[in-house]
Amino acid sequence: MEATVESRRHSHVFDEGDPLAERNTRWVVGLTACMMVVEIAGGWFLNSMALLADGWHMSSHALALGLSVVAYAAARRFATDRRFAFGTWKIEILGGYTSAILLVGVALLMLFQSVERLLEPSPIRYDEAIVIAVVGLVVNGLCACLLRGGAGHHHRLGHDHDHRHGLANDHRRGHHHHGSASHAGHGGHDLNLRSAYVHVVADAATSVLAIVALFGGKLWGASWLDPAMGVVGAVLVTVWAYGLIRETGEVLLDAGMDAPVADEIRQAIAQGPATAEITDLHVWQVGRGKYSCILSLVTAAPATPDDFKRLLAEHEELVHVTVEVNRVSLYRSA
User: What's the CA gap between 294 and 228, in Å, rounded?
Assistant: First the structure.
């Protein structure tokens, strides 16, 4: 039976959102904002650079985490908006990218304030500052657990899907599926959630550094440890921010041609019944572990786009496929 136009229409909502991650991120925003006020006020009155830096660090994270929540809400709200040709998932990625940029700003602020305090040291009220830093670490640990739960859930889903997918390919086609572990690692996780998680882990790390510095100053009189740990924290945050910028930036710029699925497309076409040559291939990510591709082929055998789409249908991560087929004779005369 010939397919109708309506039967060939399909939705461009390629990612269903992440309700658990969105809810947990809202909780983390509230906890982070409350602790931020305590740490900034405590660092100011107790004259602790490490505690103050941790507070300002947490303030920017509260803003960045808020951006993550807004990104989830915006992606959900505009999910069916026809202006977004390939869905709204990249709003979440944009939120993660923006958060990473804010992390760099935080690192620079921490570095400036820490160097300034190294050059002009001042007395610190250690006992009270240590208590606040420990409370901050506990709050950060709770926030990390909330966010890690969502991240771990999606990682397992992606791994299970790819494992089953790989077994199915091995059974049907008698060859090893190269992407069984790679898809989950490359594109199966929530980068918006990951950006929020990195912010919280960075907060926890700076809290640990603040506690170490404060104990060092209290027990051994090493007051220089307080601003020195601020410098170490700034470097650590910069490294994390760089990794997040690179990963989210690749998605935003559609730098997905090195994804395992691109090689799998080439293999599938090469092993098809009709001898065909790929003349143009574009692959980009449109959701967590989900990709779109445009494929142009030349072949000497009679074949239709649907013939090649069936070859690619077993790759469930390909959710939007466009195929153009040119016969060799017509292709050469063009």
Answer: 52
